[in-house]
Specification:
13 helices, 6-stranded parallel beta sheet, protein methylthiotransferase activity, ribonucleoprotein, 439 residues, Ribosomal_uS12_MeSTrfase_RimO, alpha/beta
Length: 439
């Protein structure tokens, strides 16, 4: 069969898609990224918050339209949306021919065979016991790849549905990770992005002495140029971990640390394990150990109980902390979470307005960071020539894939994608940097 794959949501979901692709290829089928003309489209969905659910449903409807026109054979929906709404999808979306939950990625080949025989497969394996060590067809550019070190989450934040969709936290073994990382390095990957729902708790469940520090030190022995870390939970960032990150040249001084809020009462309601004073202390430690550290975070506006006073405190905190990168999200009331049942729900318009105010505040922080880069020379990973800009584009250590800005720069010669170059920063443009290659 000719099988198209579409992956929505986070990088962790993308890794599962890449694993499914390898299984399908090894079974003798043809892989394509284009559903038009495919026998089957496999849609790996996100179902975390309302916007992700809407995106998944829109994709199902678009693929259904292709089916109706005779340009696509069957539609198999996998991932978080199907795990969360399996009955609703089957009863309300006739476009879908089969579904698989987050515990059944490895069942993709039997599911395809069932579709081919005219059945409507429904695979929902144990989300607490999944195979995360399978081979992948890496779909990111040759120079960048993700290394997913764990699945699930056991933190139990009040606003989050992920433990019910992905199961408890499960670390992969050190041996399996180092074997996969070596394969990626051998293929020419230069930027390794270490991911999990929470990388700081890596190894705690294995009870064999494995931990993030040991893993990072081993990864640094491999010929990567950059090692980037997503996500570190603030309460688990120890002095020892800070020292390891600061002392290893390959580990980028770019740390994604989701804090969600700063008000102590809101943090407690979220079931987070830090308070404002601890967050302030952590950021001070990081900046003392790594003066050039760039901190990225996630913020939720509009959690139940967040009043004007708590929101103003959050604004003041972000002005003072000057975290260079931040994703600002409106609270999404998700059924099945503790926060959904809380009193004092914030109305949508108020929450939306708070998001807009924080985005504006944060853009000024980012503009200040960019202006401070003017005149400096920064190492840039070239991602190729951008025809619309008429110059090359790339990223510094301060910019992660798809979530941060870029550097647009000119060069006299040809710069292949995946090349590291030194760029003198000469300007800023809508949150991005501009410059010229330093010969």
């Amino acid at each position: 069969m000719k099988v198209a794959f579409i992956s929505l949501g986070c990088a962790k979901n993308l890794v599962n898609t890449e694993q499914m692709m390898a299984l399908v290829r090894d079974a003798g089928h043809t892989i394509t990224a284009e559903p038009d003309g495919a026998d089957v489209a496999v849609l790996n969905t996100c179902g975390f918050i309302d916007s992700a659910k809407s995106e998944a449903i829109d994709n199902i409807l678009e693929l259904g339209a292709l089916k109706k026109e005779g340009r696509l054979g069957k539609l198999l929906v996998a991932g978080c949306l199907s795990q969360r709404y399996q009955d609703e999808i089957l009863t309300e979306m006739p476009e879908v021919d089969g579904i698989m939950g987050t515990g059944s990625y490895t069942d993709v080949v039997p599911a395809l065979e069932a579709l081919a025989s005219g059945d409507h497969p429904r695979y929902f394996g144990d989300i607490q016991h999944t195979d995360e060590d399978g081979e992948r067809i890496v779909t990111t550019p040759d120079y960048t790849a993700y290394l997913k070190i764990a699945e699930g989450c056991s933190n139990g934040c009040a606003f989050c549905i992920i433990p019910k969709l992905r199961g408890r936290y499960r670390s992969r073994t050190m041996d399996s990770l180092l074997s996969e990382a070596k394969l990626l390095a051998d293929r020419g990957v230069k930027e390794l992005i270490v991911i999990a729902q929470d990388i700081t708790r890596y190894g705690e469940d294995l009870k064999d002495g494995s931990n993030l520090e040991t893993l990072l030190k081993e990864l640094c022995k491999l010929p990567f140029h950059w090692i980037r870390l997503h996500y570190l939970y603030p309460e688990a960032v120890t002095d020892s971990l800070i020292a390891t990150i600061a002392s290893q040249p390959k580990i980028l001084h770019y740390l994604d640390i989701p804090i969600q809020h700063c008000n102590d009462r809101i943090l407690s309601a979220m079931r987070r394990r830090t308070n404002k004073a601890q967050l302030t202390e952590l950021f001070a430690k990081l900046r003392a150990a790594m003066p050039d550290v760039v901190i990225r975070t996630s913020i939720i506006c509009g959690l139940p109980g967040e009043g004007a006073e708590e929101f103003e405190e959050l604004c003041d905190f972000l002005r003072e902390a000057k975290l260079q990168r931040a994703g600002i999200f409106q609270y999404s009331r998700e059924e099945g979470t503790l926060a959904a049942a809380m009193e004092d729900q914030v109305d949508d318009e108020t929450a939306k307005r708070r998001v807009e105010l924080l985005v504006d505040l944060q853009s000024r922080v980012m503009d200040g960071y960019n202006e401070d880069r003017l005149g400096s020379v920064m190492e840039v990973l070239c991602e190729g020539f951008d025809a619309s800009a008429g110059c090359y584009a790339g990223r510094t250590y301060a910019d992660s894939v798809d979530v941060d800005g870029k550097v647009f720069f000119t060069a006299a010669g040809v710069i292949p994608a995946g090349t590291f170059v030194n760029v003198r920063i000469t300007g800023t443009s809508d949150g991005d940097l501009t410059g010229e290659i330093e010969e």
